[in-house]
Amino acid sequence: MIDILFCGNDGVYDGMLTCALSILMRTKTEEPFCFHIFTMDVSHLDERYTCISDEHIRSMEATVKEFNAENRVKLYDVSSYYMKAFSGCPNEGAYCSPYTLIRLFADVVKGIPDKLLYLDADIMFNRDIQLLWDTDLTDYEYAAARDHYGKYLLYPNYINAGVLLFNMKLSRETGLFKKARWWIKKKKLTFADQSALIRSTTKRKVLPQRYNDQKFLHKHTVVRHFSKRLFWLPYPHTDNIKQWHIEKVHSIFRYHQFDDIYDKYLSIINPSPKE
Question: Dihedrals φ, ψ of 212, to 5°?
Answer without folding.
Answer: -165, 70
